[in-house]
Design brief:
2 copies of one chain form a homodimer. With about 325 residues, the first copy, chain A, is α/β, with parallel strands linked by helices. The first copy, chain A, folds into 2 domains: about 5-125 and about 305-335, Medium-chain alcohol dehydrogenases, catalytic domain (Quinone Oxidoreductase, Chain A, domain 1); about 130-280, NAD(P)-binding Rossmann-like Domain (Rossmann fold), CATH 3.40.50.720. Helix content of chain A is about 25%, strand content about 25%. In chain A, strands 3, 4, 5, 6, 7, 15 and 16 form a 7-stranded mixed β-sheet that branches. In chain A, helix 5 packs across helix 6 (about 225-230). The radius of gyration of chain A is 20 Å and the shape is globular. Chains A and B meet through strand 13, helix 7 and strand 14 of A and strand 13, helix 7 and strand 14 of B. Strand 13 (about 260) of chain A pairs antiparallel with strand 13 (about 260) of chain B.
């Protein structure tokens, strides 16, 4: 290992508004050495997710902000290079929050061994990983879909939304996705089997959404916020559940965002609106993952990947999460499988 | 009965903004005759409540709008004058939604017989009636207060808020009330035993509230909305519950209200925000009423009444609910007990 160096992408500056490439910096350093109980791993697939933007700010968002100069947080699928933990051997594939770097130290006590039989390795951080678990558990635990319910999903073509919508279909629901542009809409109603799709760039999003939800909205899976959320709340049906899973339209905001008041729709429908954080549902991960893996094997769960080649291209790719150019689970291929 | 007439206050016009006296009209007509299964009752105490404003509008708010020319809805304590139902006899005291009028027909199948031993008759539509049940069940079923929680209540000196806060004290919580003016604040921290009170007219409501809630807000009992709610959401503690019981600052709005976005505080605290409608909890009324009556008898539940003399003065009094002049449960004495 001594001849190799480790490339790491660190936080150079806290973004003001949308993240810029100059907010991140590629550094090189020595490959780290594992201590007892640790693993040295080499990153194969790095996941790029909206929550990382929150960790670049100054507020505690789930976890404290990333310090300036520290490697950017991120889930990754990696291969064990050296193991000092009895449960792992070189060559094992693991999934852990090892960050934007070629090599990392993983803790044997917390790293998860990936079963390659469940699907392609990249799915361990996609449809069978954090995004898939977020979709399944957010929908099931907070959204509590009943057969016949109308389920609306924003950012529906995204890594979380696409799984949430397909699970809602399996649950016997009418599923309406909101996404941007014809290609994504066609994907939702075609490959993913949604019942309807609404273009967030359309002239009359509230009208289009109302037409797609003639019986109102029983479950709203919120990933976006802002005007998209505002179009949904007036359509809530009695007893609706709103899963506040994310609010990507807010993540780059430099002023406190204002929206339509949602008080009246919540009050008069007795709706329940609840924040959802996947990390609070860790006890359910394996149960949920087995279900998702079965549906994947049965061909009932489609997914799409948006693959970027090379760690050095991660900063530019990250921006695409926020401007709608990303289509499918955004992954960086850091090294060959 | 033939020599008496029945005075009724009917909806003359749908209010635009704050209700005006001219939106309501006093009419006289014959005293109605009960059919089989019905009761003729004479109103003693009429309750004036904010929800009535909603029923004067054009939207379905719990129930359809009151038609123009129809009597205004309202809960009342009345005496049975004539009974054509076997469970009731003349002289019985009943509580039903008989409206703003001297005499009314009540249905024997739905009217509730009031037990005068539980408290003064007026409490049957106050601390032991809909406002008290709303406070108790909203707090307990949706707010789910745990001992040690900080509970914030808006419109805390109102008929609902005052009971909610006292029940939260009984539940072992730190209770912070928001109300307008020194007299109400002194009432909250004095007679009602709240831990702190914040003046909604203060220069820095968010700052005062933050100072009163050093550990954040675990339960917010929302009766107001608008800027008052906006001051509370950023203080939500992890796992907070928000009981959306009312939003009086919205009821006279002529434009769709806008507020600060509550998405981020809900998302990052995993808070639960739920609309509460007392009518969905009817199965729990008697259980809750017995508890409230016991605390009332034990001197653990204080209440205050704001009494208006005469049905003809109800329209003017109703406006006081919306401008902060009302202090205590607003009641109209329609006839002597």
């Amino acid at each position: 290992m001594a001849t190799e160096s480790n490339r790491r992408i660190v936080l150079a500056a806290r973004p003001a508004g949308a993240p810029k490439e100059s907010d991140l910096r590629l550094e090189e350093g020595p490959v780290p050495q594992p201590a007892d109980g640790e693993l040295l791993v080499r990153t194969i697939w790095l996941s790029l997710d909206p929550y990382m933007r929150l960790r670049m700010g100054t507020e505690v968002r789930y976890y404290p902000p990333i310090p300036i100069g520290e490697v950017i947080v991120g889930g990754a699928v990696s291969r064990v290079v050296e193991s000092r933990h009895p449960a792992f051997a070189p060559g094992d594939i693991v999934d852990d929050y090892t960050g934007w770097q070629d090599y990392a130290i993983a803790q044997g006590a917390s790293a998860r061994k990936v079963d390659p039989a469940l699907g392609p390795l990249s799915t361990a951080i996609g449809v069978l990983g954090m995004p898939g678990l977020t979709a399944y558990l957010g929908l099931v635990k907070v959204g509590r879909p009943a057969p016949g319910d109308t389920v609306v999903i924003s950012a529906a073509a995204g890594a979380v939304g696409a799984v949430a919508g397909q699970v809602a279909k399996i649950a016997g629901c009418r599923v309406v996705g909101i996404a941007g542009g014809e290609e994504k809409l066609a994907y939702l109603t075609g490959e993913l089997g949604f019942d309807a799709a609404v273009d967030r760039h359309g002239n009359d999003v509230p009208g289009a959404l109302a037409a797609a939800c003639p019986d109102g909205v029983d479950v709203y899976f919120e990933n976006v916020g802002g005007p998209i959320g505002d179009a949904v709340y007036p359509l809530l049906a009695h007893g609706a559940r709103v899963v506040i899973c994310g609010g990507i339209s807010h993540y780059n905001a430099t002023e406190p965002p204002r929206t339509a008041s949602h008080l009246a729709p919540i009050l008069f429908t007795e709706a329940e609106v609840k924040g959802f954080n996947i990390f609070s549902y860790a006890a359910h991960y394996e149960h949920a993952r087995r279900r998702l893996a079965r549906w994947l094997a049965e061909g009932r769960l489609a997914y799409r990947e948006d693959i970027v080649e090379g760690l050095e291209n991660a900063p530019a790719a990250f921006q695409r999460l926020f401007d709608g150019r990303n289509f499918g689970k955004l992954l960086v291929r850091v090294s060959a499988e």
